[in-house]
Each structure stands twice: as structure tokens, then as C-alpha cells.
Task: inverse folding
């Protein structure tokens, strides 16, 4: 997404496209490793000297509220973030901690089993051992 398109998208969501907000989003959009607030802060602080962890947290909270970024809750007490994309599930490796995007999980939920509920979003997070770590265990 070009910077002009990003600025336009932010404005359409009533987000003021400040330099800090733009850079945080660009950083997120360049990555697929589901960074934490701390990781984002450490990566961007050298180029944005006035950046604080609180600012990163507040920007991400705003982005999540407006649907620009998704928060991923894993079994570790640490939120991860990613730019909103197509539906997919997540797999967290218990050995290396990496989070993988995987195809959406088909559930057995039917409209009848969720009668009276309106599902706005579904988030599926699986935990286990990734193929790389399994292979390393064999060696």
C-alpha cells in the first residue's frame, strides 16, 4: 500500500495519519511475524527518537479499535499484532515461540447452534510444535 493510500485509508477511519502512526503501520505491514509492542518499539525507536512504548501501545489500540490491525491473543500473556488481512488462523509453536499464519479452520458451528448470537469475528489459535522444531528434536 502506498503512503498516499495508507493516509487516505486512515482518514476514512477517522485516524489522523501522523508520522508515528504511518511508520508503525508500515512496519507492521512489512512483517508477518506478529510483533509485540516491545518489538515494535525497539525496532522503531532509533528512527523515531520521541517514540515511547506507551505511544506504540496507544497507536495499536487505536488501530485495533478501527479495524486497521488485529490483536492476537496467544496462550502467552503477551499480545501480538498484525495488519488486518484475509481470514486465517494462527499456530503458535511452544518450542520456538513463532506464530504461523495457517488457513482458516472450518468449525462445526451452525446458525442453529449459535442461535441468538451474532458472530462479528472469529479468531482461532492453535498451539503445538512446528515442523522445524519437530525436525530438530529428531536430530
Result:
Amino acid at each position: 500500500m502506498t503512503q498516499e493510500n495508507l493516509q487516505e485509508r486512515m482518514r476514512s477511519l477517522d485516524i489522523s495519519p501522523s508520522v508515528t502512526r504511518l511508520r508503525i503501520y508500515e512496519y507492521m505491514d512489512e512483517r508477518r511475524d506478529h510483533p509485540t509492542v516491545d518489538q515494535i518499539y525497539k525496532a522503531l525507536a532509533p528512527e523515531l527518537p520521541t517514540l515511547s512504548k506507551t505511544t506504540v501501545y496507544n497507536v495499536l489500540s487505536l488501530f485495533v479499535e478501527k479495524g486497521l490491525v488485529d490483536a492476537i491473543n496467544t496462550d502467552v500473556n503477551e499480545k501480538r499484532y498484525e495488519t488486518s488481512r484475509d481470514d486465517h488462523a494462527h499456530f503458535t509453536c511452544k518450542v520456538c515461540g513463532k506464530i504461523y499464519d495457517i488457513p482458516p479452520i472450518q468449525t462445526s458451528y451452525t446458525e442453529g447452534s449459535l442461535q441468538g448470537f451474532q458472530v462479528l469475528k472469529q479468531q482461532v489459535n492453535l498451539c503445538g510444535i512446528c515442523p522445524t522444531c519437530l525436525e530438530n528434536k529428531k536430530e
